[in-house]
Amino acid sequence: MKNIGFLSFGHWSDAPGSQVRSASDALLQSIDLAVAVEELGADGAYFRVHHFAQQLGSPFPLLSAIGAKTSRIEIGTGVIDMRYENPLYMAEDAGAADLISEGRLQLGISRGSPEQVIEGYKYFGYLPGDDQSDADMARQHTGVFLKVLEGEGFARPNPQPMFPNPPGLLRVEPHSPTLRDRIWWGAGSRATAEWTARQGLNLMSSTLLTEDTGVPFHQLQAEQIHRFRDEWKAQGFDREPRVSVSRSIFALTSDTDRAYFGRERGGSDQVGHIDGGVARFGKSYADEPDKLIEQLREDEAIAAADTLLLTVPNQLGVDYNAHVIESILTEVAPALGWR
């Protein structure tokens, strides 16, 4: 059995064929798609965060709106770039969004991906220290964020406050007491997956790994997951961690499906460069349901994960994306034991 959700990059453009032509379209359709997939029986709605781009950049208003409009599905991010974040303000926003959704927030965070602009975090007011990289700064922000989520007081109260204070040091409010266990780290390598386990974070792994050992992507990603779980066990944590992988998967059940994605049949991994290093990119899956089932049965990383996020072509509109997800839920997932 697997949790099955979608991951949207929230693109918008006025290009021909786009059903998402503005930021307003992207936000409102994201809410509508989350409501639709909850009705279909899916388990989650996740959103990618990119700054300086025609994509979803400020996740918490969107997550809060979805939390208010739905009642069951998980809502989350995949991922928030921690180089850009004020950890305390983020803890306030995350706590509010989690309380609105009654504890359904699953927050994916990370160092982030290649940016649209050069050192964009500087425009947000954040600079690495003299002996820091931007990745170090992201982890430093993360450490503060996680500490604040524990809910212990740390700020000295004003002896003459506007409103009465509780005794002792004060914490950031609103506080969601269980949110700390629902934070995920987007890891791009096996070593980072082990670091993720040591922090007590859930593991989020995408269709990109920032290393290449010559084995197929799904096998390298499965090794990453196994290393994460081994390290988690070694740390002796008293809860079971979550692991998600994302995939582009399209069941070709109509002429429209074949027109959009038929050319992606028989896809393969790709090896390239990102941020100056070698990276391996996972393939997309597109085929008739019976053939798709056999291909997915061989994916070792999907088998090792408890959560599968289906990347969706959001610019094709709510109805078509709901159809894409429904096709996986009804035509593919039962045969693989995911439902």
The helicity comes to 25-40%
Radius of gyration: 20 Å
Distance between the termini: 6 Å
Largest beta-sheet characterization? 8 strands, parallel, barrel
CATH superfamily: Luciferase-like domain
The rough form would be described as globular
Q: What name is given to the CATH topology? A: TIM Barrel
What is the domain tally? 1
Assign the structural class, choosing from mainly alpha, mainly beta, alpha/beta, alpha+beta, or little secondary structure: alpha/beta
Give the oligomeric state of the chains in this entry, treating copies of one chain as homo and distinct chains as hetero: single chain
Number of H- or I-type helical stretches: 10
Domain Luciferase-like: 14-257
Protein name: Luciferase-like protein
GO molecular function, one term: oxidoreductase activity, acting on paired donors, with incorporation or reduction of molecular oxygen
